[in-house]
Write a structure and sequence with these properties.
3 strands; flat; three-stranded antiparallel β-sheet; Multidrug-efflux Transporter Regulator, Chain: A, Domain 2; mainly alpha
């Protein structure tokens, strides 16, 4: 062992006790090359403070719901510094706390409104369902994205707040109404091309222009027949097929 906490090295049992994890967990992370310790001349695993920082990121990302395979991709590609990683973790946890607070608030409202022998107000229960399904829909949609896309979306997730979601929904509704008013016009006209530009910018607001995320979004759109009923209902105001087809023609002209 070397002196000084910054340069001190720990054998696996010491490191497990220091970090509050099991030796078996460290063996597993080593086996899947998620947390690779150094080796002494005699073959013993040894860990340093840098390994503790990486382990904190692994444990935090696992708590946030990412599987180990995605965590490995994320840490391998992004190489986040500890301050950046902690900020990201804090934002994601704040978002989850906000969702939980909303769910708890809705349930408490329902609890206060329910009275024995009286008919339950459907609107109260609907609010609970909507809050919970907001998270369920996010989890369900991930099946349309590959591992690389899931990692990128996980990094960007803290930025996608309920307020931003509401604003994007408002912009989409306004745009769709404007496109409906332009149906039948020449897709190459200045007016329609301006609508196509707005459409493209809104799409890129979600995808960030990333080709992997864009492909996942296309996969999602193409499988509408298999969307859950609740998601179909939520998406219905945005899914005018005539509008989407018209915009596809206008956008194709822009790419020529």
């Amino acid at each position: 062992m070397r002196n000084g906490s910054a340069g001190k090295m720990y054998r696996i049992q010491e490191f497990a006790e220091l970090a509050g994890v099991t030796v078996r967990t460290l063996h597993h992370y080593d086996h899947i090359q998620l947390l690779k310790p150094r080796r002494t001349g005699t073959g013993y695993r040894v860990y340093g403070i840098g390994d503790l920082e990486r382990l904190e990121q692994i444990v935090a990302l696992k708590f946030l719901g990412l599987p180990l395979k995605q965590i490995q991709l994320l840490l391998g590609r992004e190489a986040l510094s500890l301050p950046d990683a902690l900020r990201m973790q804090c934002r994601v946890l704040e978002q989850k706390r906000c969702l939980l607070d909303r769910a708890i608030g809705a349930i408490r409202e329902a609890e206060a409104a329910v009275r024995p022998g009286r008919q339950t107000d459907a609107a109260v229960l609907k609010k609970i369902i909507e809050v919970i399904e907001m998270q369920d829909n996010t989890d369900w949609m991930m099946q349309y994205y590959d591992d690389a896309s899931k990692v990128k979306l996980a990094v960007r997730q803290p930025e996608w707040t309920p307020e931003l979601q509401a604003e994007c929904s408002r912009q989409w509704m306004e745009l769709i109404a404007d496109v409906e008013g332009a149906l039948g016009e020449d897709p190459a006209s200045a007016r329609v091309q301006a609508l196509a530009d707005r459409w493209t910018k809104l799409v890129e607001g979600f995808t960030g222009g990333d080709p992997d995320i864009t492909q996942g979004a296309r996969n999602l759109y193409a499988d509408q027949a298999n969307w859950p009923a609740s998601f179909q209902q939520q998406a219905k105001p945005f899914m005018n097929k005539e509008v989407w087809s018209f915009m596809a023609k206008a956008i194709a002209l822009r790419k020529r």
